Amino acid sequence: MRKIAIIGSGTTTLYIAHKLLQRGYAVTVYSDRTADDWLLRSAPTGTAYLYECNIMLEREIGIEHWYDTALHGQGVHLDFQPTVGADRLVLIGNFSGEGAAIDVRMRIARWMNDFEAAGGKLVQSAVTIEALNKIANAADVTLLAAGKGEIGKLIPRDPLRSVYDRPQRLVTMGIVEGFDHPCPDRSDIRAVKFNFFADAGEYFWVPYTHKDAGPTWCWLLEAKPGSYLDCMGDVRSAAEANAVMKRLIKTYAPYEWPHVEHMRPVEGDEHAWLKGAFPPTVREACARLGGGLVIPVGDTAITYDPIGGQGGNSAQRHAKFVADAIIERGDAAFDEAWANRVRDDFWEYHGRAAYAFNNILLEPLTEAGQIVLGYASQHRAFSDQHFIGNMASPNYFFPWLEDPALARAKIAEFERSVRAT
Question: Is the pLDDT of residue 116 over 70?
Answer without folding.
Answer: yes
